Structure to design on (499 residues):
């Protein structure tokens, strides 16, 4: 029987398990948390406490309490992979969202136009989304979940015969087969065997260490830290609440608007309100400071909303928001039977709301990869990817990650205080181009192009369609922002906020 193990039952692990179940007879998800967060929806809320189960979430994923927006590309993948899930979420009270009509969104200091479009998704708490996906996976029959299993290492065997002494393309010896995971369960240590191990254990993954234990090099890492802080509180939407928006998104603008916010409507008539501060200007987690920060935001909606609403939780902060990429794809040697995806490989500044969608897209790549391997090249493990091919997966994944990474880090580089000389000509051009684009965001065609790129629906190249690009480029020529002098803005440090 061919088996796979997934380390970590977060969104990346769940999406991966869902596709693995099409390729393996048995898939086991190992999760260190003792128990999943409560599925039952709360019947009574206590103001100013964290007694709201869906807000508190589970300890393994402390980000659960904060705003979690699923980009439309992610919704599209869910519709394809888990048909009917969207309807289940809507039936459980997740509000539908006609994105451009229902969202009051400020980007680059300009309000996005509001109009009807076919860009329709839904808004749901991370906890409900995760628990419903998990339930769907349970129903598949060949996915089992083991909670309270903390993976502490990989088990491996030497498999020169499996590779017939071949050297992989990169020249390294490819002689180790990952055969499973070593876990602690309470006081016990157990080894679980599988043909494929997928690491989806999140930002704090110990995979670099586990690889070193097997004699492999640790990966190079890229970090771009805009020093972003979150503060979040859940509210009950006041009865009879009237506003011309369902959701509010206030984005920051380099270098003068350091504070932003999201009001996300979720099931059970609640708002998740997250305040965001860049470059160390973090929103406070005490009540007075939180409200003061909300009052000072560039748009009035957030303060108007929370002033009228009943708080359901305390205020929780979050600071671990840097963009962080472990470049496994650059390694010369990689063991057989191992794959890594999700935040374990690349975690983004959450402001861009890309993590869950990128995890869903990573699972798509995994499916495609296993399908090709299974049909075209059945190895001694019966279609399980061998060493060089597992590394090939990491390379394919890295290719996909480039777009969300560029989207997330382009602006964050500036907030991080990178010197102008470090920014490439293309990056400086892109900063200018996007600024000019945001000046025109009131135009529906510009807004749609921007929205589709930000939601990972269309590649960034679509921002350069002639109708959009020509007037922008003409203006850039006229006002000289195509000249190298444009560097000077990049040198500016974030100034005191003008809020
Ligand atoms: C504050 C914040 C807000 C965010 N907002 C958004 C958003 O709006 N939209 C969006 O798409 N994304 C958002 N994200 C990102 C999103 O949460 C993740 O990118 C996405 O869920 C994929 O994460 P993951 O499954 O790879 O890791 P995680 O969600 O961290 O899950 C990892 C899992 O592995 C388990 N685990 C860890 N180590 C072990 C071990 N040794 N053994 C067994 N189990 C282990 C953990 O308990 C956990 O369950 C946000 C992130 C943060 C921090």
């Amino acid at each position: 029987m061919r088996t796979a193990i997934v380390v970590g039952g977060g969104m990346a692990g769940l999406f991966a398990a869902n596709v693995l179940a099409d390729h393996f007879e048995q898939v086991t998800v190992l999760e260190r948390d003792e128990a999943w967060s409560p599925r039952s929806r709360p019947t009574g809320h206590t103001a100013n406490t964290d007694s709201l189960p869906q807000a508190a979430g589970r300890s393994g994923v402390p980000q659960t309490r904060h705003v979690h927006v699923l980009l439309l590309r992610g919704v599209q993948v869910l519709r394809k992979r888990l048909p009917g899930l969207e309807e289940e979420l809507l039936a459980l009270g997740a509000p539908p969202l006609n994105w451009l009509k229902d969202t009051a969104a400020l980007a680059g200091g300009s309000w996005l136009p509001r109009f009807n479009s076919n860009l329709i998704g839904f808004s749901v708490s991370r906890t409900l989304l995760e628990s419903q996906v998990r339930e769907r996976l349970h129903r598949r029959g060949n996915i089992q979940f083991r909670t309270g299993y903390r993976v502490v290492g990989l088990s491996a065997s030497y498999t020169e015969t499996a590779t017939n002494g071949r050297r992989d393309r990169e020249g390294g010896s490819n002689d180790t087969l990952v055969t499973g995971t070593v876990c602690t369960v309470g006081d016990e240590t157990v080894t679980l065997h599988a043909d494929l191990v997928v690491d989806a254990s999140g930002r704090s993954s110990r995979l670099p260490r586990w690889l070193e234990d097997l004699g492999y090099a640790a990966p190079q890492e890229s970090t771009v830290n805009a020093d972003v802080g979150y503060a979040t509180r859940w509210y009950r939407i006041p009865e009879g609440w009237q506003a011309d928006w369902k959701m509010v998104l206030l984005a920051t603008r380099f270098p003068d608007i350091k504070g932003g916010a999201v009001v996300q409507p979720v099931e059970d008539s609640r708002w998740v309100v997250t305040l965001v501060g860049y470059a160390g200007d973090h929103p406070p987690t005490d009540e007075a400071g939180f409200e003061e920060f909300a009052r000072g935001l560039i748009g009035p909606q957030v303060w108007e909303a929370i002033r009228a609403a009943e708080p359901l939780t305390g205020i929780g902060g979050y600071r671990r928001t840097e963009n962080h990429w472990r470049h496994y794809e650059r390694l010369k040697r990689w063991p057989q039977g191992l794959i890594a995806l999700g935040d374990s490989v690349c975690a983004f500044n959450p402001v861009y709301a890309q993590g869950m969608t990128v995890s869903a897209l990573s699972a798509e790549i995994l499916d495609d990869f296993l399908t090709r391997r299974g049909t075209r090249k059945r190895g001694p493990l019966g279609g399980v990817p061998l060493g060089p091919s597992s590394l090939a997966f990491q390379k394919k994944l890295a290719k996909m990650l480039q777009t969300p990474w560029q989207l997330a880090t382009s602006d964050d580089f500036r907030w991080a205080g990178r010197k102008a000389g470090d920014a490439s000509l293309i990056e400086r051009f892109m900063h200018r181009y996007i600024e000019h684009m945001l000046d025109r965001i009131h135009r529906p065609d510009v807004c749609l192009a921007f929205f589709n790129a930000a939601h990972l629906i269309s590649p960034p190249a679509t921002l350069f369609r002639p109708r959009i690009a020509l007037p922008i480029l003409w203006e850039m020529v006229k006002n000289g922002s195509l000249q190298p002098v444009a560097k000077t803005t990049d040198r500016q440090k974030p100034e005191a906020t003008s809020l």
In short: The longest strand covers residues 176-185.
